[in-house]
């Protein structure tokens, strides 16, 4: 499975592509950070992110996109910008019929480090180790994008099992309710 991990942001948007192998084996294929200037109008910044993401999707052809889920942030402007960048990325994925999954920062940290409250240095160190990189990815947005992709690779089988279980439960519930309705007639 080829996963594009995205750490959305207006100033710095981390992009990565990894491929999963057998078990927990993952291989880094590419990583970069798209930067936009705060001096530019919002629509120009979003367009720059959209254009870069579009190029990445067309070049790397990911099977799935893993985007960091926006969480409550004391700085509303930062949260809003992150959400807007994430929305642009999800839209580009939808245009290509690429599945999108959102992961919270604590899910990503827990998957990569074993600690949902790990700091950026711990995440970077583990990403470097897991992917057997020669040097640490910088800035932190690049490491976070790789961590998102790793998280999704490792969580995807569980996500698929949960979706299948939910589908089965809904089908069983529908059949049960139909039988109840027939009995009550």
UniProtKB/TrEMBL annotation:
Known EC number: 3.1.21.10
Keyword field contains Nuclease: yes
Keywords assigned by UniProt, alphabetized: Cytoplasm, DNA damage, DNA recombination, DNA repair, DNA-binding, Endonuclease, Hydrolase, Magnesium, Metal-binding, Nuclease
Catalytic activity: Endonucleolytic cleavage at a junction such as a reciprocal single-stranded crossover between two homologous DNA duplexes (Holliday junction)
Residues binding Mg(2+) 2, per UniProt: 68
Positions with a binding annotation for Mg(2+) 1: 7, 141
Subunit structure: Homodimer which binds Holliday junction (HJ) DNA. The HJ becomes 2-fold symmetrical on binding to RuvC with unstacked arms; it has a different conformation from HJ DNA in complex with RuvA. In the full resolvosome a probable DNA-RuvA(4)-RuvB(12)-RuvC(2) complex forms which resolves the HJ.
UniProt record similarity statement: Belongs to the RuvC family.
Summary of the function given for this chain in its UniProt record: The RuvA-RuvB-RuvC complex processes Holliday junction (HJ) DNA during genetic recombination and DNA repair. Endonuclease that resolves HJ intermediates. Cleaves cruciform DNA by making single-stranded nicks across the HJ at symmetrical positions within the homologous arms, yielding a 5'-phosphate and a 3'-hydroxyl group; requires a central core of homology in the junction. The consensus cleavage sequence is 5'-(A/T)TT(C/G)-3'. Cleavage occurs on the 3'-side of the TT dinucleotide at the point of strand exchange.
Protein name: Crossover junction endodeoxyribonuclease RuvC
Species lineage: Bacteria, Bacillati, Actinomycetota, Actinomycetes, Mycobacteriales
Gene: ruvC
């Amino acid at each position: 499975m080829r996963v594009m991990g995205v750490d959305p942001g207006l100033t710095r948007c981390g992009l990565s592509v990894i491929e999963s192998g057998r078990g927990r084996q993952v291989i880094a294929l590419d990583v970069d950070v798209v930067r936009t200037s705060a001096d530019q109008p919002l629509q120009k910044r979003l367009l720059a992110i959209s254009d870069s993401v579009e190029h990445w999707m067309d070049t790397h052809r990911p099977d799935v996109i893993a985007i960091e889920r926006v969480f409550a942030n004391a700085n509303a402007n930062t949260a809003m910008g992150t959400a807007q960048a994430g929305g642009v990325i999800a839209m580009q994925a939808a245009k290509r019929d690429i599945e999108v999954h959102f992961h919270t920062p604590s899910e990503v940290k827990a998957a990569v480090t074993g600690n949902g409250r790990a700091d950026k240095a711990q995440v970077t160190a583990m990403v470097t180790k897991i992917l057997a990189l020669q040097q640490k990815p910088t800035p932190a947005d690049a490491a976070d994008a790789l961590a998102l992709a790793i998280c999704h690779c490792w969580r995807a089988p569980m996500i698929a099992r949960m979706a299948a279980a939910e589908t089965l439960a809904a089908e069983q519930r529908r059949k049960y309710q139909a039988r109840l309705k027939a009995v009550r007639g």
